[in-house]
């Protein structure tokens, strides 16, 4: 009986080791949640004052109310209602725009370009903003590649910004 248990225990331990090695850490966020983030802000206001939750809940851009706001890191977000603010606070990284609120497609080319808050898409549960319909169409033509390239540029540009300051 003991001779049969030893190989079984070793097999279980090996399976646990392989499972632990196979689990990958989640990729770093480009939503602006980290302290060294590269953010597109008007003074301190993110998304040009639009409510970040409305993109998800109403599937449209809705201007936020200056009286209903929340500060996350160095960014201030405006909301069109108190309910939107509470929704945002329940999971801020989910609602923050990717690439610090810069144009996602432009970021994929290594350029920091402002956005038109009316032009956006939700892809895989994340908010991507664009400067114009043409670059949004480029994003939608190959979103995985655009996100991969933009992520690499985002972290490189953020690193350069930190080194300058």
How would you describe this structure to a colleague?
This protein has 165 residues and is an alpha+beta fold. The chain has one domain (33-164). 45% of the residues lie in helices and 18% in strands. The strands form three sheets. The chain has a two-stranded antiparallel sheet. A two-stranded antiparallel sheet has the order 3-4. It has a two-stranded antiparallel ribbon with strand order 5-6. The N and C termini lie far apart (67 Å).
Topology of helices and strands:
Elements: H1 2-22, E1 41-42, E2 45-46, H2 54-57, E3 65-72, E4 75-79, H3 82-90, H4 92-95, H5 104-108, E5 116-123, E6 126-130, H6 133-141, H7 143-164
Antiparallel strand pairs: 1-2, 3-4, 5-6
Strand tally is 6
Point out poorly predicted stretches.
Answer: 15-27
Beta-strand proportion? 15-25%
Number of domains: 1
Pattern of helices and strands? HEEHEEHHHEEHH
In one word, what is the shape? globular
End-to-end gap: 67 Å
As laid out across the biggest beta sheet, the strand order is: 1-2
Number of helices: 7
Write down the overall mean pLDDT.
Answer: 86
Query: How would you sum up the major sheet?
Result: 2 strands, antiparallel
Q: Which structural class best describes the helix and strand composition?
A: alpha+beta
């Amino acid at each position: 009986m003991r001779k049969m248990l030893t190989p079984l225990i070793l097999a279980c331990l090996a399976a646990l080791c392989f499972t632990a090695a196979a689990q990958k850490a989640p990729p770093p966020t480009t939503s602006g949640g980290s302290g060294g983030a590269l953010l597109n802000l008007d003074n301190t206001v993110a998304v040009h004052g639009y409510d970040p939750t409305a993109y998800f809940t109403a599937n449209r851009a809705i201007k936020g109310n200056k009286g209903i706001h929340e500060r996350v890191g160095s960014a201030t977000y405006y909301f069109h209602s108190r309910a939107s603010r509470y929704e945002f606070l329940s999971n801020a990284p989910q609602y923050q725009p990717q690439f610090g609120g810069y144009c996602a497609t432009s970021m994929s080319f290594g350029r920091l370009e402002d956005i038109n808050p009316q032009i956006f898409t939700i892809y895989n549960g994340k908010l991507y903003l664009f400067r114009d319909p043409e670059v949004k169409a480029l994003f939608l033509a190959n979103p995985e590649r655009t996100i991969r390239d933009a992520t690499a540029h985002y972290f490189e540009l953020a690193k350069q910004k930190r080194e300058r300051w």
